[in-house]
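Entry 14. Ran structure prediction on the chain below.
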Amino acid sequence: MGLWYVVSMVSDCKVFLGKKDHLLMSSRTIRAMPGGNLSVHMEFPRADGCHQLDAEYLRVGSEGHFRVPALGYLDVRVADTDYDTFAVLYIYKELEGALSTMVQLYRDLPSPHHCEPRSSQGPCCASGRTQEASPQATKAFQDFYPTVGLPNDMMVMLPKSDVCSSAGKEAS
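Output, structure tokens:
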């Protein structure tokens, strides 16, 4: 739970493949809800600003298994995680009438007590945190996505952006 960055993605979705070279690192704030569902607030940096979206991940079956009707996600599974610093998510979705597979690598942020306060915005401003995945997380991601038929040329490591950070919002 908490704040996570999507640092890498791979997908056979035609929309994704057409935009992947222009995508930037996005974030997810995840909160547990009763019954095992998750409330997820997403922020996507784009050329025209920070786009925000909220969705409920509905638990189905076992722990770590969800569907997200609002986003066309038919099957979402936590494929690998260390429950602390990274998660690999498998997503089977429908977009514009086409079915596709996506795998995302999430990286969490250090707890505020690991950072020093930098301003009145609160402890641990985004500019002081690392957003890169650990070698263990990267290996888990790279080992998993070929098992669902996704090749290396469909993968992108997402560049950092401050468009959705509090510093980026104040600057715009």
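Residues 111-129, 167-172 have pLDDT under 50 and may be disordered. Will compare against last week's run tomorrow.
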